[in-house]
UniProtKB/TrEMBL annotation:
CDD domains: HTH_MlrA-like_sg2. Keywords: DNA-binding. PROSITE patterns: HTH_MERR_2 (PS50937). Pfam families: MerR_1. The keyword DNA-binding applies. It comes from Flavobacterium frigidarium. Residues 11-81 form the HTH merR-type domain. InterPro entries: DNA-bd_dom_put_sf (IPR009061), MerR-type_HTH_dom (IPR000551), MerR_fam (IPR047057). This is MerR family transcriptional regulator.
Amino acid sequence: MHIELSKDKRYYSIGEIAKAFNVNASLIRFWDSEFDILKPKKNAKGNRMFTPEDVTNLQLIYHLVKERGFTLEGAKTHLKEGQKQTLDKFEIIRKLETIRTQLSNIKNEL
């Protein structure tokens, strides 16, 4: 699960986020209420607008809960105890996945 962040875009709607993660918007709202590291802005209508930092944190939450099978409490504890270390490992995993995809594409072109 990797979402490309646009350098020009400052905010992402909950619909964009849900579509990118292939989950319901209600799950994103639930995670927003459960995880303190998510701090989306709200527009005049009350709609959540996620920053690129929020998207990175959502990727990390998705990785812990959906890919690694953490419970919500386990993910919260993991994030609080070693957020910097967890984020560093997560970034390494994402970069390696990108490299693997690029190598696979090169292989398919041969």
